[in-house]
Write a structure and sequence with these properties.
single chain, 434 Repressor (Amino-terminal Domain), elongated
């Protein structure tokens, strides 16, 4: 079994590529990824792919458990959706992993447990401007 560390995704992938005798380009052809990008992922210069489907294709090609690879990439597998919707399940898992219980905190109306499990979005997209732009007359704009 692979020992998980701070960068488990790249370690798991490198270890399994070596065990299977796969080169970077060969693996990337098998899973439909850009070799240049994936080289940077393995060198810890880029984050692992965020799409679960891509991570599962990599797991299949390497003969690794899909859930293990998705989690090692820092993602919550869709099969674990109950963690986002079932508070008691979340509390039990958290207690098992940390040895501590979750302290309840009020959840604001714009933040939900499901937002933590939502797919990542591009930075800045969908966020309202902090201060709306108000056009000024030319004299005031030049000052």
């Amino acid at each position: 079994m692979t020992r998980l560390s701070r960068f488990p995704f790249s370690e798991i992938v490198r270890e399994r590529m070596l065990a299977r005798g796969l080169g970077l380009r060969e693996l990337c052809r098998m899973v439909g990824m850009d070799a240049s990008y994936f080289s940077k992922v393995l060198a810890l210069k880029r984050s692992p792919p965020s799409e679960e489907e891509v991570l599962e294709r990599i797991a299949d090609a390497l003969g690794v458990d899909k859930t293990l690879l998705v989690v090692s990439a820092g993602r919550i597998p869709s099969a674990w959706g109950g963690l986002c919707t079932d508070e008691s399940l979340f509390r039990r898992v958290h207690a098992l992993l940390t040895g501590r219980s979750v302290v309840s905190a009020p959840v604001s109306s714009d933040v939900s447990a499901q937002s933590a499990c939502a797919p990542p979005t591009k930075r800045g997209w969908g966020r309202p401007r902090q201060t709306p732009y108000v056009p000024k007359d030319l004299e005031e704009e030049l000052l």
